[in-house]
Design brief:
alpha/beta, 8 strands, about 15% strand, binds ligand NPW, binds potassium ion
Length: about 240
């Protein structure tokens, strides 16, 4: 059975609803989203495969998920490094940054150089609000992630992919195929073009909300914050 997907518009509306009538705060949702990403990395890239995780962080909430994941990974025993070139003055992102600084997580300015000594990469640049052509300074970062042999885990969307249509036909991102994707709450239509390991995370949706937005809450087990749903077709 094919997984039901959420369009970019529906995902944004769901986000808004969770934070209004759903009574969640953005901090809560981001914490659970980032926690689920950290659990995926622990599964696909356990500590013995190498502790150096490079996190590419973008200017919105997708980036915030990456900052949260970096914090959890530090507590699990990894050595995360964060590339965060565009930092909005938003209080939430500043607090997430301070929490990482207190854990002595390094922030770097040169992504391609940092990539040379990374064992795993988290793509937290853009999520469901991405559109159009990738603007500076991110084209070189996406190009580096596309070319590296280091495995990449993308949060919610491979950055630069159109949320509905998938990878761009040419130019930046056309050759970017991350090894792992963590869809938050529900996959976006771009997942039809994704062939790697696919997980769903974001274990915070009430059944009535899932019904209203017409997607399936995957069968989370025990303490897990994630469910693997691919690559063998779409198992749900
Ligand atoms: N409900 C859920 O499941 C939850 C979802 N969560 C997460 O939130 C994510 C969505 O976050 P979001 O809405 O903040 O936007 P996001 O995708 O990070 O990007 C926006 C930024 O990118 C920029 N930008 C856009 N296009 C660009 C371009 N071509 N080139 C360059 N820049 C470009 C844009 O800049 P602007 O256009 O405003 O100048 C803006 O700064 C979602 O995918 C999930 O990861 C969790 O945190 C909580 C629970
Ligand atoms: K991403």
């Amino acid at each position: 059975m094919a997984l039901k997907t959420l369009s970019a518009k529906a995902a944004a509306a769901l986000d808004k609803e969770l934070m209004s009538s759903g009574a969640f705060s953005i901090d809560q949702l981001m914490e659970l989203a980032g926690l689920s990403v950290s659990q995926v990395v622990y599964r696909v890239h356990p500590l013995h495969k190498g502790k150096r995780v490079l996190v590419a962080v973008g200017p919105g909430n997708n980036g915030g998920d990456g900052l949260v994941a970096a914090r959890h990974l530090r507590h699990y025993g990894y050595h995360p490094t964060v590339y965060y070139p565009k930092r909005p003055k938003n209080d939430l992102y500043q607090r997430l940054t301070k929490q990482l600084e207190d854990l002595e997580v390094p922030f770097v300015d040169d992504f391609p150089t940092a990539l040379k000594s990374a064992d795993h990469v988290i793509d937290a640049i853009f999520g469901f609000s991405f559109s159009g052509e990738v603007r500076e300074p991110f084209p070189a970062v996406i190009q580096a992630m596309a070319e590296t042999k280091v495995p990449v885990t993308a949060i919610d969307a491979p950055s630069s992919w159109d949320i509905e249509a998938g990878p761009p036909a040419s130019g930046v991102g056309s050759n970017f195929h991350p090894a792992v994707l963590v869809s938050l709450t529900a996959p976006k239509p771009l997942v039809r073009h994704f062939r790697g390991h696919h997980f769903i995370g974001g274990r915070f949706v009430a059944p009535a909300i899932a019904k209203k937005y017409d997607f399936d809450v995957p069968p989370y087990e025990g303490l897990d914050q994630v469910v693997e749903v691919g690559p063998e077709g779409l198992r749900l």
